[in-house]
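Example 3.2
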Amino acid sequence: MLRTSHTTTIEELAPSAITTDPVVNTRPVDRSWVSRKLREGFDVKRLGVPTVSARVDGSHIWVDGQNRGALCLAADRADIKISMKVFHGLTVEEEAELFLGLNDNRRVQPIYKFMAEVTAGRPEALAITKIATSNGWAVSDSSASNAIHAVAALTHLYKSSPESPGKTLKDTLAIVATAWGIVPEAVSAGVILGLGAFLADCPEIDHQILTKKLSSYPGGPASLLGKGRGLREATACTVSQGVDQVIRTVYNSGRRNGRVSTWAVPVSQPGPVQEAILA
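Structure, written as tokens:
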């Protein structure tokens, strides 16, 4: 929602004069789309009317249309002037909101939508980011070891404890960071969803004991995820349900008291297959 006073104009601008602010237009240029359109033949009449934002420093940034700008560049036509819808007077937060609104019905990867939501200042995205950061993680599309890409899983876990928003997510990220360190495998969607489901269903468990057992689990989070995938193949469960089941077995190992229940899943292959996976 645009909150400050702004105006719009239609202006003739050259794509070469427009830049990209990655905190607003968080989605990278789709190079495959550009290549395909270039093979089809460049036609200026098919560019439509891109949307840009005019900033107080005199610069213009893409809000919607950076792929078309990249196509002009690839076709060596970046200096031709085309009609663009220009917003004046927007804050960076409002630029990000506009990007989200214009791309609401398009296939924008969740990580890029989430990053734009952070820029726009949406409370839920900011809260999730704060929880991740406080535990050593960063919600990002980068290849850094502390980057989390699984934003749908993060959002699900954040909402899974409505009486205390974010508690399950906070506990989950804290446990995986302590048990395995800051490594990408620890925050794959299947691992954090499975662990989060277990924590939400069994709030009485001892987190320190669980963390210690997970830290010594052979093969670490990659092996845990592999076991979850194995259960998916052997049963009708999802990968995260399989991870949940494995974690319950790990937590119960060597315990006489305080054991947690394991759930029954429909077995599509002989029982020993499931038993071998959990062993």
